[in-house]
Amino acid sequence: MYNFLKVSDQTLSAMPSGKYSIELESVRVADTKDGAHKILAAVFSVTEGMKYGGRKIFEYWNCEHHNETVVEIALSQIKSYLRATSGKDFNAEVENITDLCKILNDTAHIPVLATIRTVESVGFMPQNKISSFAELKD
Q: What's the number of domains the chain is made of?
């Protein structure tokens, strides 16, 4: 039996904008809602602090899209992330989205410093989005 009388409603508000230590948990290839394009769906986890440690941030990178600007933005964000995990610029050609997904998953659990912003959209609760990645310095 589940007794809901003893628990209170809980809502998670967005974290304040700022810099947080995060790590990639996983990435998977997915279709866009309309099924016309492929995205990389990434799950990041905040690694610092009692208050926000363990919080999840979901990023969706449009890597296969008819609009080249959309793809360029996604690849720029991914390149920034890969640079932050290795300390080196990532200047490689990757054959396909599946290979790119594998490269990203190989970097899982490497802490990076992320600039997080809060995004508000009509009809949705405020969400956190990653603006940029940087190498985490000791």
A: 1
Domain that holds residue 78: 14-135
**101 neighbors 28 (Cβ within 8 angstroms):** yes
Contact 63, 38 (CB under 8 A): yes
Q: Sheet of 38-46: strands edge to edge?
A: 56-64, 38-46, 18-31, 112-119, 127-135
Q: Which pTM was predicted?
A: 0.86
- CATH number, position 42: 2.40.50
Per-residue CA distances from 137 to 35, 79, 85, 124 (Å)? 40, 18, 11, 35
Assigned domain for 8 exists: no
27 three-state secondary structure? strand
Model pLDDT for residues 108-120, shown as the tens digit of each residue: 999 999 999 999 8
For the chain, strand residue ranges (E) read 18-31, 38-46, 56-64, 112-119, 127-135
